[in-house]
Amino acid sequence: MDHDMALILCRHPKSISFRRPVDPVALGIYPIYNQIIKNPMDLGTIKQNIDQGSYVDKDDLIRDIQLVWNNAKTFNPKVNMSNGCC
User: Fold this and answer.
1) pLDDT score of 80 more than 90
2) Which CATH number is associated with domain 3-84?
3) What is the pLDDT of residue 9?
4) For the chain, domain boundaries
5) Are the beta carbons of 64 and 49 closer than 8 angstroms?
6) Could you read off the pLDDT of 7-46 as tens digits, one per residue?
7) Sequence-separated (6 or more) residues with CB below 8 Å from residue 43
8) To 5 degrees, how large is the angle CA 80–CA 30–CA 13?
9) CB 65 within 8 A of CB 44
10) How far is it, in rounded angstroms, from Cα 71 to Cα 35?
11) What are the residue ranges of helices labelled H in 12-85?
12) CA distance 23 to 14
């Protein structure tokens, strides 16, 4: 699968918030985050899935990338910096 696409996204300066799974406890947003976001996804997990050959085709990869952005937009208020990066 397209390892280069994941690397480009992970290396982008505005991707820092999306490189690791959200830790709701550490961020003080538990259990609210888990009630709102049913399918968490992050760029690090996507890269790991690519490395393990977990994606059958590019559509699966694109769905997960879109899930990262959709989750951020769903959980974060419009004024939050994370939402502006999506």
Assistant:
1) no
2) 1.20.920.10
3) 86
4) 3-84
5) yes
6) 788 889 999 999 999 999 999 999 999 999 999 999 999 9
7) 6, 9, 10, 15, 18, 19, 65, 68
8) 35
9) no
10) 12
11) 32-36, 43-51, 58-75, 81-84
12) 19
Per-residue confidence band for 78, with pLDDT thresholds at 50, 70 and 90: confident
Burial class (CB in 10 A: 0-12, 13-18, 19+), 23: exposed
User: How far are the Cα atoms of 9, 23, 35, 80 from residue 16, in angstroms, in the given order?
Assistant: 10, 14, 24, 14
The pLDDT tens digits of the residues spanning 39-61 come to 999 999 999 999 899 999 889 99
Provide the token pair at 7: 């690397």
The answer to whether residues 82 and 70 touch, using CB atoms and an 8 Å cutoff, is no
Say if residues 65 and 8 touch (Cβ distance below 8 Å): no
Residue with tokens 């992050």: 42
